[in-house]
Every structure is written in structure tokens, then in C-alpha cells.
């Protein structure tokens, strides 16, 4: 991987704020001509620094009014049991984030649901049925005051 210069960082700042911009728009915002900007973006993608572009959706306007943080403790901690659990968690559409943790719990899941009835069904029919689950502790998020994927570059 090559070293990032200030122009690369400017491009990354612009794109992480609005991934829908065209190369021409990015080039204009970072004071660079289109061809060198395009080459830099291609290099950043090729090196895996830019992993993709996505659209942020307003979950509430789409009917998802509850966010739950679920902490999972497994019955076993071997590589196989962690992998099997992880794969099962990936298959649940309501699970947005899967994080392996050190400490009292093994996994942390961010789950988005329509309401608490939806979460109760998800918990009963999918989460507690996942392989190796010994304990689940759930916390309801009352309000997200800051939610960002922007890195402080």
C-alpha cells in the first residue's frame, strides 16, 4: 500500500461525506483535474481503502423504530463455535453489526426492528436458536444522538 498524501486524504474526506459524487465533482472539490482524481480514486479502491459506496437510509421512515444492542455469551469459545455463530448472525437481515468482543460477552450485535413485538419474535425464533448461544442480554437504544461512519481523517 502506498503512503497517502494530503490530496488522497481530501478525496477520502469528500467521498465519505457523499459517496454519490461523480469523479468530476470530487475533482472540483479537491482542486484536481478529472484524470488524476480518477486515477487516485482507482488506486484507493484497488488498495482496499475505499471499500465501496453506499446509500444511507432513514430507518424510521422505513418503519424500523427500534434499535437493540444484544450481547451474546456462547457456550464454547473455540474457533469453530465462533465461526458457526458468526455465520448464523450474518444470515439475519435485522442484524446490522456483528462484533467479536473480549470480556464478559463474546459478541455484540446491533439489531434494527420495527418495534418491540418484532424484536420479541426475532429473539424467540432466531437469536436464541443460533448455534452455541448460552446467554443474551438486550439493551434498547432510546435515541441515537450521533450516528456516523465518517473517520476523523
- The structure class reads alpha+beta
Tally of contiguous helical segments: 5
Distance between the termini: 17 Å
Strand order of the largest sheet: 2-3-1-4
**Mean pLDDT across residues:** 96
Strand % is 15-25%
The value of Rg in angstroms is 20 Å
Helix percent band: 25-40%
Largest sheet: 4 strands, antiparallel
**Net shape:** elongated
What is the number of beta strands?
A: 4
Uncertain spans, ≥5 residues at pLDDT below 50? none
Name the helix and strand elements from N-terminus to C-terminus, one letter apiece: HHHEHEEHE
Structure description:
The chain has 153 residues and is of the alpha+beta class. The protein is built from five helices and four strands; from the N terminus they run H-H-H-E-H-E-E-H-E. The chain has helices spanning 6-17, 23-29, 34-46, 79-90, 116-127; strands at residues 66-74, 95-100, 107-113, 133-141. It has a four-stranded antiparallel β-sheet with strand order 2-3-1-4. Helix 2 packs across helix 3 (34-46). The longest helix is centred in the first third of the chain and has 13 residues, at 34-46. The radius of gyration is 20 Å and the shape is elongated.
Topology:
Blueprint: H1 6-17, H2 23-29, H3 34-46, E1 66-74, H4 79-90, E2 95-100, E3 107-113, H5 116-127, E4 133-141
Antiparallel strand pairs: 1-3, 1-4, 2-3
Helix pairs in contact: 2-3
